[in-house]
Amino acid sequence: MDTYTFLIQLLNGIQYGLLLFLVASGLTLIFGIMGVINLSHGSFYMVGAYLAWSLSQHLGSFWIALPTGIVLSVALGMLLEWLFIKHLYRRDHLQQVLLTYGLILIFSELRSILWGDDVHSVAVPALLAGSIPLTEMLSYPVYRLWLSLVCVILAGLMYYLIQHTKLGMMIRAGASNREMTQSLGINIDVLYRSVFALGVALAAFAGMIAAPVSSVFPGMGNQVLIVCFVVVVIGGIGSVKGAMAAALLIGLVDTFGKVVEVEIGGLRILPELAGMSIYVFMAIVLLWRPEGLLVRRQH
Amino acid sequence: MSKRLLIIGLSIGAVLLVAFPLIGDRFYIQFVTRILIMAMFAGSLNLLVGYTGLVSLGHAAFFGIAGYILALYAPETHAAGFWSSLLLSVSGAAVMALIIGALVLRTSGIFFIMVTLAFAEMLFFVFHDTAIAGGSDGIYIHERPVLMIGSWQPLNFANPSHFYYLVLVFSIGVILFMRTVLRSPFGQVIAGIRVNEHRMRALGFHTFRYKLVCFVIAGAIAGLAGYLAAVQFGVVNPEMLGWHLSGSVLMMVILGGMGTLAGPVLGAFSMMFLEEIFQALTKHWQLLIGAVIVLVALFLPRGLAGLLAKFNISPAAAGQSRRAPPHADV
Amino acid sequence: MPMSDAMTNSGNTLETRALSRHFGGLSAVDRVSLKCRMGTVHAVIGPNGAGKSTLVNLLSSDLQPSEGQVFLDGDDITGLAPPQVSLLGVGRSYQKTNIFLPFTVFENCRIAAQSRLATSMRFFRTAHSYRSVSDAAMRAVEQVGLADRADEQVDSLSHGEQRQVEIAMTLATNPRVLLLDEPLAGMGAEESSQIIDLLRSLASNHAILLVEHDMDAVFSLADTLTVMVNGAVLESGSPDIVRASRAVQVAYLGEHGHE
Fold this sequence. Notes:
The complex is a heterotrimer.
Chain A: H1 3-34, H2 41-59, H3 62-83, H4 93-115, E1 131-133, E2 139-141, H5 142-164, H6 166-176, H7 178-183, H8 188-210, H9 220-235, H10 240-263, H11 277-288
Helix pairs in contact in A: 1-5, 1-8, 1-9, 1-10, 2-3, 2-4, 2-8, 2-9, 3-8, 5-6, 9-10, 9-11
Chain B: H1 2-23, H2 26-52, H3 60-73, H4 82-104, H5 109-129, E1 139-140, H6 160-183, H7 185-202, H8 207-233, E2 235-236, H9 243-256, H10 262-281, H11 285-299, H12 303-310
Antiparallel strand pairs in B: 1-2
Chain C: H1 2-8, E1 14-23, E2 26-36, E3 41-45, H2 52-59, E4 67-72, E5 75-76, H3 82-87, E6 90-93, H4 105-114, H5 131-143, H6 159-172, E7 177-181, H7 189-203, E8 207-211, H8 215-221, E9 224-229, E10 232-237, H9 239-244, H10 246-258
Parallel strand pairs in C: 3-8, 3-9, 6-7, 7-8
Antiparallel strand pairs in C: 1-2, 1-4, 4-5, 9-10
Helix pairs in contact in C: 4-5, 4-6, 5-6
């Protein structure tokens, strides 16, 4: 692999990792704070992508579609929490798995009814079209750089929110002790609803901004969910920092897994198996440190 | 009282199942065959979820892999032997369960759920993205395996009634096998692990080994079901390993009632009937299935068995190691 | 039976050397060295938070030590997994009742006794057909005085009775060394005196390490006493020596009065 390809792939890997982080951080926050394993989290990513496609057609602009989509996904998150998720807080994992699995089926069929089963593409907004030269040899699509930048800003905001604000303090307290938080006079219902809506909005937003770089297709939610599970297994649950590190790692492993394989494709290794690199990576992590690669050891 | 009711119910059910091909038409014979196969599959998952407390979301991996082994092993031009192909498929599923189990059982709780799903999905991609076995379209089994005892062919699998009886015998065999295992010392250990794994370790049990063996047994039974499904349909595709199947079989276990032998059978019957009805109603039948799943999770966490127990007709009384609470006898 | 072998062993059955466990900057157990001999009761006392339970957890390998070693019959058993320690003949009970609530009293003890089969990877005979297991389980049930409640599900028992099940399970594994973490806590007077009698009768052919707050029980049972304060050993010796110790009176009995 030459330096040129390497740098491009490095940027692609980081960009994919950052996108994964947006989805995985919601998943890990919802589990870490509310103790709910949410299988339907990937559906929000899918819904986001379809929203971006559909709204930019109807409203005529990606830039109007984006904030509209965010408002809609926050509302969706609040509604879902109120209807279903709040009943799961004191239930065991099995019932959480079951209910959120049911939600996947519902979202998938609603998508099919509303938007059909076709694959779509969303045009890169004109403002961010084109590439910029990074070096003499190297140019990179502006949109992908913008996407990475937005993810980094959001990650920074989340870090600030959790570490340095009153809401973050409440979130951290809520994660450790529901009763204690309540006795401090914090309205736990509002807190949980906000966190869930935040998680939904993050996943949907990731889907929206990913839409112009990847196609919009029915199975995209489940695909991203499983990759996010790998991220959470490696990064440890409930930790936003761990999710960031693991997401970048997985983004790079996946991206380079595909490229490196093309190079040794001549050695008759099935090129299609490249998609498995992240699972092989997870298997190694489980063998080596089953409690998660980035979790501080207890003993 | 409730035990006698149950025995009467079971006897009626058994007579109906045996006599069924004499009265049912071809479509229904094949439909009930499918249900029995799914009931076996759900029973194997119940061993993990209901009896050992291991919530696996990737159990279809073992169902599907056994089907693929049959498809890859069966020659195109003539039929494979039943016993050899069955042995190969089931042991293949068991080996796969040993490998995956050794990895996933290093985690627990929510991680276990995520990791089982991820590894099953990895197998899905192996068969979906590569040309090993026809990619996303799957692969045909041109000739059904032939069951021979010496030079005598007692059953012809192309005949739905014959195949039905084969599946019925296997289903009953699986239930009897599980019943025996659950009452054995091994069964006591997995029950102990479900309730309190920490104390089991303190008592001197290397719980990992028992969980792994349980995972392999469950994988092998799922493999048996997958093999039979592949024989019935004459085709295997990646959906057989997919997480929709894993989710739907988990639903059967919970709907019927976890930790009871009759539960998965009840769950498989109910789910398959619902699917059949919903499919006749609308193209978007999964919407209705999803709604039913959500409602069950919210209102029927103990499944139909739990509902029956409320009316004091408890399948748990059918000789489970778990005893009814003392006040139920009063 | 291995028991008679053990009786002839006059060595220090269970011994710790400079055993420590840190949690962050806090030393829950701080360089504790003690010996627990076959045929004796070694009581560990101290105020709440002195590190007594942590010590028991280190001995049973529920926790791994930060430093120091544990020896059983002279063999270093530090760092073994809990099942290995149990199979070597070290049985423990828990301060917080840690039993199988959906099982009956007998089934709780049977699963414990079953751990002494060479393997439980047995799939075809029913569990209740293993006579040696059932006998050992029933013996343990009788020892703690729950024979008439053997078939009751334990979550329907009183708290004190559940404490008895806790001890019965430990006994059903036929240990040589007993680690008992506050066995009398939560028991009524009658149940207590029954268990004290039981422990006295077990003392002749077991090494018993007893963590207990009931001072009457401790002084009537113990051959050796170790007083722990803030994770460290304050005093160790015969009951008379400990009773007479000025340091103990000031540090421990004084603090104890505030509880």
